[in-house]
């Protein structure tokens, strides 16, 4: 029993005539009759009886009819779903998002994608950069949005943003100075996002400054919160300050203190859907 036989069977059941069914199927009567006989032979039942008004289904034929309709509908759905998956129009996108990626995820392009391909859905995992990279490595997610610096071994990436580091503080006098140089941070109680510590240390050492780190943490939002409570001067990426500390920060003028948001994925073959998402980010 195959899909072609079931399609032939349903057409005959609907038309109630071999001649009309063959015409509708664009085939000759002999091959149609042959396929129906093969179907009856395999099932070991009579599916049709001839009457004065044409062909009618037997009880067994009516039973098969309900199954045949479901099977053909399911086959068509499977074909459609497989095609959409292959074309990147169907599936789940598992994406990891660092806390500092709020300005790029979600984007207007994601909204357009969801409107154009309503069968695509998103599974979002929120972690810090290292948590996102760990999930990418163990296959929990397909894509990640993380902040430099990090180890690029085994992954490919696309840079999404480039931005300055800024100082978040309650010190209004400090904020009125405009863009500052790092020497202005000397003797200040600094609050840092721990993963930037090595970069800060190198720059301070080059400038002959011994920094005082009042607070070290693992999330830039935490650094901002402590600064807003008057615990010190938080050094964070500019986009995070714009989101959580508007009018409470000043830009630092230092070329090596640049940070980037990057879209990352594992090296190797990837699905059409994942490639479609990668291409969204220009």
UniProtKB/TrEMBL annotation:
Pfam families: HTH_1, LysR_substrate
InterPro entries: HTH-type_LysR_regulators (IPR050950), LysR_HTH_N (IPR000847), LysR_subst-bd (IPR005119), WH-like_DNA-bd_sf (IPR036388), WH_DNA-bd_sf (IPR036390)
CDD domains according to UniProt: PBP2_LTTR_substrate
Ranges of residues in domain HTH lysR-type: 1-58
Alphabetically ordered keywords of this record: DNA-binding, Transcription, Transcription regulation
Family of the protein in this entry: Belongs to the LysR transcriptional regulatory family.
Name under which the protein is recorded: Transcriptional regulator
Organism, scientific name: Lactobacillus intestinalis DSM 6629
């Amino acid at each position: 029993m195959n899909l072609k036989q079931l399609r032939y069977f349903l057409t005959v059941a609907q038309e109630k005539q071999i001649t009309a069914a063959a015409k509708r199927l664009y085939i000759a009567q002999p091959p149609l009759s042959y396929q129906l006989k093969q179907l009856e032979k395999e099932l070991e039942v009579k599916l049709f009886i001839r009457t004065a008004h044409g062909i009618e289904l037997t009880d067994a034929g009516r039973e098969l009819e309900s199954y045949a309709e479901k099977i053909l509908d399911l086959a068509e759905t499977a074909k459609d779903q497989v095609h959409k998956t292959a074309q990147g129009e169907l599936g789940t996108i598992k994406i990891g998002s660092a806390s500092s990626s709020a300005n790029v995820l979600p984007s207007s392009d994601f909204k357009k994608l969801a409107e154009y391909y309503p069968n695509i859905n998103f599974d979002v995992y929120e972690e810090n950069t290292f948590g996102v990279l760990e999930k990418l490595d163990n296959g929990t997610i397909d894509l990640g949005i993380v902040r430099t610096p990090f180890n690029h071994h085994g992954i490919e990436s696309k840079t999404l943003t480039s931005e300055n580091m800024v100082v978040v503080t309650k010190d209004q006098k400090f904020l009125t100075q405009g863009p500052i140089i790092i020497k202005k941070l000397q003797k200040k109680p600094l609050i840092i996002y721990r993963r930037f510590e090595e970069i800060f240390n190198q720059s301070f050492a080059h400038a002959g400054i011994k920094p005082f780190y009042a607070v070290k943490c693992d999330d830039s939002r935490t650094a901002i919160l402590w600064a807003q409570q008057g615990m010190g001067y938080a050094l964070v990426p500019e986009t995070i300050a714009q989101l959580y500390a508007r009018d409470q920060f000043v830009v630092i003028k230092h070329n090596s203190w640049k940070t980037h948001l990057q879209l990352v994925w594992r090296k190797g073959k990837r699905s059409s859907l994942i490639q479609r998402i990668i291409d969204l980010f220009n």
